[in-house]
Amino acid sequence: MPRGYFITFEGLDGSGKTTQLRRLAVWLTASGHTVVSLRNPGSTPLGDRVRSILLDSRSESTLGRITPLAEMALMFADRAQSIAEVIQPALASGSIVLCDRYTDSSEAYQGGGRRLGSERILAMHAAVCNNLQPDLTLLLLPPLKASLARARRRNDHHTQNHGADENRFEREPDAFYARIHAAYKKIAAREPGRVVTIANDAAGDNSIDAIELRIRALVEERLGVLSHS
Question: In the predicted model, is pLDDT for residue 163 greater than 70?
């Protein structure tokens, strides 16, 4: 059986990546593909526990300050588990795997935002993830201020309505996110064959539907090349 195809979605919270992942999953499934969707952190019993620690703004009131290195290590513990439990078995069965965040997020958030540097993150990826790379990464990179405002509104609304608090990162200052935004741009420039940036074009249609169609066309082209290779 041929190996499946691994697609990751990256970007700041509020970039629309989760919405676009869900829409792509629906379209691929309707087109006859077997699709497995997951998120980092999360999507395994261990990963869900890690997610509750890393994203809940109340974690540090009970656990103490989570250091940047501890944060990085927890992210990679979650990732190693999701690779073993979900990603590798799905790829081995020929499925298309859609993952909301992967190692690029660690390089951007911990490497850039927390100032740990790319070299340390990439060394962890090689050691812990056996250097498993996505076949395609879709980087949604709208303007920084708009993305942050949307993320903070969404998380506040979610906390009020569902009680779950995932605002720990959103409490960071704007300078933290500026470093993340810059780190994502560096990753895209370094790996243009894998990372495709979906940025807002002032002259184009940047609606959710229009971005969905751009992503569909890109994925359809990549899968078509794969099927004929």
Answer: no
Cβ-proximal residues to 167 (8 Å cutoff; 6+ apart), any chain: 55, 56, 57, 152, 155, 156, 159
Q: Are 177 and 144 in contact (CB under 8 A)?
A: yes
Q: Considering just the CA atoms, what is the radius of gyration of the chain in Å?
A: 17
Higher per-residue confidence, 143 vs 93: 93
> In this structure, what token pair is assigned to residue 38?
């997951």
Q: What is this structure's pTM? A: 0.91
Residues 121, 184 contacting (CB under 8 angstroms): no
What mean pLDDT value characterizes the chain? 90
- Beta strand 195-198 with 136-140: parallel, antiparallel or unpaired? parallel
Domains in the chain and their CATH numbers?
5-227 (3.40.50.300)
CB 104 within 8 A of CB 8: yes
Q: Please answer whether residues 15 and 147 qualify as being in contact, where contact means their C-beta atoms are separated by less than 8 angstroms.
A: yes
| Number of CB atoms found within 10 A of residue 32's CB | 6
